[in-house]
């Protein structure tokens, strides 16, 4: 009678086949034969992550550095009742990180947690830097999904990943400078269970691969995903992506960049209090403010990421320069008109009211509703998951 795996608990589903192997007989020859048969099909490796600390997110290099622990478990029937296994010769999942820049293994502990069934537990502590494509078009109102892209040197016919039984993925990280770590979206747990159930039942997509398994454990803030990875050698390799959702804190940029830029541009409106005939003085003040804005931009230039496209901050500073440029053009035009004419007064009053009125209203909107400038998480997830690091 075939067992419905989707109705089993996570641990029962993980070790169902291995328990069946143990029931075949206690003789070593039978155990070895069952071991080869089970491993000839596929070994299920339960994997879980605990993020201890996120050190930094480097926008320029598009990397992030963190401390984390990895817990793995699998069943090795050849280690049943073995007191001191030779781990150099024992089977291992050969896990790798595909988007790693630098990985340092701090410590490693491996042992047989259940000798009666040959259940192996492996705990590894890492400090690592990973590569991540950052979407910064809304900088500094941006949200990012950081990935740990896990795979193995063993093809999918030998190994598959699953959630570590009875162990949630967690973040114990302290708050990151300039960033907030976000929790899993509401309702994700229900959709995760449905997808995981379809994967466990063997549902395949149009390419013949198993449906992607996604799961979450709110409020752990880490969302691992499992997908198959095709390689040039014609084999498919297992894959798991653990996701950490972060949101940039925009307050520093609002107070130190936006507010200062608004003040510098708004001060330029004092030229309309000067006589129209003083064209040189008016232009001198305007050019001085332009140079001040340029110098200010270079001052905090290292805090703004450099991308091939324009970010929100780039567009904002361009608008500031355009306002000052338009004002210079208006001063030149006013110098050609007769001083004291009604047309000139209407022109300058209209320009000042429209330009600086809109400039100030937009800043009031940003100050009051800055949260509306962030892209919704649903769109962030949809856009960034397309750019999987291959």
TrEMBL record:
Topological type in the membrane: Multi-pass membrane protein
Q: What is one GO cellular-component annotation here?
A: membrane
* Stated name of the protein: Neurotransmitter-gated ion-channel ligand-binding domain-containing protein
Q: Which Pfam families match?
A: Neur_chan_LBD
**Primary site of residence:** membrane
* Keyword Transmembrane helix applies: yes
Superkingdom to which the source organism belongs: Eukaryota
Name the keywords, alphabetized: Membrane, Transmembrane, Transmembrane helix
> Which subcellular locations apply to this protein?
Membrane
**Alphabetical list of InterPro entries matching this protein:** Neur_chan_lig-bd (IPR006202), Neur_chan_lig-bd_sf (IPR036734), Neur_channel (IPR006201), Neuro-gated_channel_TM_sf (IPR036719), Neuro_actylchol_rec (IPR038050)
- For the Neurotransmitter-gated ion-channel ligand-binding domain, which residue ranges apply? 40-154
GO terms, molecular function: extracellular ligand-gated monoatomic ion channel activity; transmembrane signaling receptor activity
Spans through the membrane = 252-273, 285-304, 316-338, 344-365
């Amino acid at each position: 009678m075939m067992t419905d795996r989707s109705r089993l608990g996570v641990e029962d589903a993980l070790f169902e086949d291995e328990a069946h192997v143990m029931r075949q007989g206690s003789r070593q020859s039978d155990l070895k034969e069952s071991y080869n048969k089970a491993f000839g099909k596929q070994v299920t490796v339960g994997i879980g992550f605990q993020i201890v600390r996120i050190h930094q997110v480097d926008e320029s290099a598009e990397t992030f550095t963190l401390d984390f622990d990895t817990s793995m478990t699998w069943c090795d029937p050849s280690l049943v009742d073995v007191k001191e296994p030779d781990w150099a010769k024992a089977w291992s999942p050969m896990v790798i990180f595909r988007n790693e820049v630098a990985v340092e293994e701090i410590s490693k502990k491996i042992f047989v947690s259940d000798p009666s069934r040959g259940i192996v537990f492996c705990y590894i502590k890492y400090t690592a830097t990973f590569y991540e494509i950052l979407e910064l078009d809304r900088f500094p109102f941006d949200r990012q999904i950081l990935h740990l892209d896990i795979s193995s040197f063993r093809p999918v016919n030998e190994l598959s990943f699953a959630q570590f039984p009875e162990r949630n993925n967690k973040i114990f990280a302290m708050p990151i400078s300039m960033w907030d770590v976000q929790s899993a979206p509401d309702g994700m747990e229900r959709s995760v269970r449905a997808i995981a159930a379809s994967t466990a039942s063997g549902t395949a997509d149009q390419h013949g691969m198993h449906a992607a398994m996604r799961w979450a454990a709110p409020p752990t803030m880490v969302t691992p995903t499992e997908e198959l990875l095709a390689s040039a050698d014609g084999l498919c390799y297992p894959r798991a992506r653990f996701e950490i959702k972060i949101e940039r804190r925009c307050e520093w940029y609002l107070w130190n960049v936006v507010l200062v830029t608004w003040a510098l541009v708004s001060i330029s409106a004092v030229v309309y209090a000067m006589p129209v005939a003083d064209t040189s003085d008016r232009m001198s003040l305007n050019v001085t403010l332009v140079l001040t804005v340029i110098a200010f931009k270079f001052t905090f230039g290292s805090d703004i990421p450099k991308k091939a496209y324009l970010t929100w901050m780039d567009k904002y500073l361009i608008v500031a320069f355009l306002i000052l440029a338009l004002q210079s053009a208006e001063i030149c035009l006013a110098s050609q008109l007769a001083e004291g004419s009604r047309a000139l007064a209407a022109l300058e009053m209209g320009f000042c009211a429209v330009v600086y009125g809109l400039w100030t209203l937009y800043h009031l909107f940003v100050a009051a509703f800055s949260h509306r400038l962030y892209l919704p998480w649903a769109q962030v997830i949809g856009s960034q998951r397309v750019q999987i690091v291959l």
